[in-house]
Amino acid sequence: MTVYYSLTFMLLAAEMVTFCLLVAPLPYKIRKSLFRFLSESYAVAKVAYALKISFIFVAILFVDALQRMFRVTAESDLAKSGQGGATDVRTETNLAARKFYSQRNTYLTGFTLFLSLVLTRTFYILLDLVQTQEQYAELKKQASGKTSVQNGDDKKQVAELKNQIAVLEAKERDFETLKKQASQQAAEFDRLASKYNEATGSVSNKRSD
């Protein structure tokens, strides 16, 4: 395997490890920290930019490997049909080896490009999921805070209403006491007035009415 195909294989292996790491069932805090690092790190952004350039070269290798595979396949079919002249075992082995290598290179570069698309799409989906979970947690926290504040205000209003009711009840009791004292004083005044009238021999205007 040539150097550039060896590098392509290493890139494919790195993509597979990264994909497994992204889809692994990690705890929420670890996943949140990981995606925040991957999305905000300057070094990761530089690596991602370099990978985009490398994928352009991989795409060129894929097109070249695909053309070679078609050409070798056509030569192999031509040799098998006997139109290319007499072939010996060495020629057939050579054609089979070339066909195998061309197919291997095509699959290697093709899977590398395909996995890069899957990896990119998976990363952004999971990043949106983490951000949505953060927003949901923040909204839930705000809602619970508003509920606690509202409950505190309700309790304060209830306490104030209870105090007002207690004051009104105290005033009502004082009024009833004053009313009772006034009625008692009026009855005592009438009794004293009657005795005074009997003692002086006069009749009050009230009784004459």
Automatic annotation (TrEMBL):
Query: Is Transmembrane helix set as a keyword in this record?
Result: yes
Q: What residues does the Bap31/Bap29 cytoplasmic coiled-coil domain cover?
A: 156-202
Extract the Pfam families matched here.
Bap31, Bap31_Bap29_C
The Gene Ontology biological process annotation of the record reads:
endoplasmic reticulum to Golgi vesicle-mediated transport; intracellular protein transport; protein localization to endoplasmic reticulum exit site
Answer yes or no on keyword Transmembrane: yes
Membrane topology term reads: Multi-pass membrane protein
Q: What cellular-component terms does GO give this entry?
A: endoplasmic reticulum membrane
Q: Any idea where the BAP29/BAP31 transmembrane domain is?
A: 1-138
Chief location category: endoplasmic reticulum
Which domain of life does this protein belong to?
Eukaryota
Q: Which residues form a coiled coil?
A: 151-188
Subcellular localization is given as: Endoplasmic reticulum membrane
Functional summary from the UniProt entry? May play a role in anterograde transport of membrane proteins from the endoplasmic reticulum to the Golgi.
Quote the protein name from its UniProt record. Endoplasmic reticulum transmembrane protein
**Organism the protein comes from:** Collybia nuda
